[in-house]
Amino acid sequence: MNIEEYISSGILEAYALNTLSVEEMREVEDMMAKYPEIKEELNAIELSFEDMAMAAAQAPKRDLKSSILDMIEDEPQIVEPQPQVAPKSEARVVQMPASPIWKYAVAASVAIALMCGYLAVDYRSKWKNSSQAYAQLLATNSQMAQQYNQVNQSLGDLQNDLAVLTNPDFRRIAMPGTDYAPDAYASVYWNQASQELYLNISSLKELAQDQQYQLWAIVDGQPVDAGVFDWNAEGLVRMKNMASSAAFAVTIEKRGGSENPSLDTMQVLGTV
User: Fold this and answer.
1) Residues 9, 14, 15, 16, CA torsion sign
2) Mean pLDDT of the chain
3) Per-residue H/E/C for 165-216
4) Nearest-angstrom CA–CA distance, 139 and 119
5) Which end of the chain lies in a sparser environment, N or C, as judged by fewer CB atoms within 10 Å?
């Protein structure tokens, strides 16, 4: 939680002026309970509002008191009949006129408070909109970066595939479908000097989630694991290095591969 950003959002000013919703008021109270610095900032805001109201107030004129006293002297006295008792000092109740100066001071204070509240709410609204726009911009930039990385990776794969396909040191061995899968077709590109081996899928059926295809090299009459791959692999798939081989074949195995091929699932086979 960034306390400074929360304080500068204007929500405390809106709280002090009682312009928040019930949910937002509770949120501020929870934040004050967790973070004493937020409570201190709210106290400072309330004091600043009080100072502004006092600063806007105007002191009465010096001759106001004498004017009031003159009005009292000029006012006719009303003497009510009193019962015949021992004489007492007469009491007179005088209602002092309300001065318009104080009305103006209160009105100015209220106007300043309302203006501060409006500015606080307006600032908070703009701050929220800016935060949302910033978050959306970050998400857009992140998405663009991911797309760029994907395109860059695809371009790199295409360049690598082209380098293999145009390299005369790589030999292409076609692997047509077997009796178990007559429509299947794949091929391998093998550089016997560097022992690099790549697989290219042309047509292989979709497998279950717990299954994978496995490439085998036939070395001295024995199958040697050349790696596993998924049915939807695209482009040239890098397989295990192979120094020698008389043929290549692909079988269906459990995910992760097997030590020995399941011959009854052989999909394609090609001799070198």
Assistant:
1) positive
2) 79
3) HCCCCCEEEEEEECCCCCCCEEEEEEECCCCEEEEEEEECCCCCCCEEEEEE
4) 30
5) N
Per-residue pLDDT band at 177 (split at 50, 70, 90): very high
Burial of 189 from C-beta contacts in 10 A (0-12 / 13-18 / 19+): buried
* pLDDT surpasses 90 at 216: yes
Select from 238, 155, 230, 236 the least CA-distant residue to 196: 238
Average confidence (pLDDT) over 199-217: 96
Rounded Cα distance, 90 and 183, in Å: 125
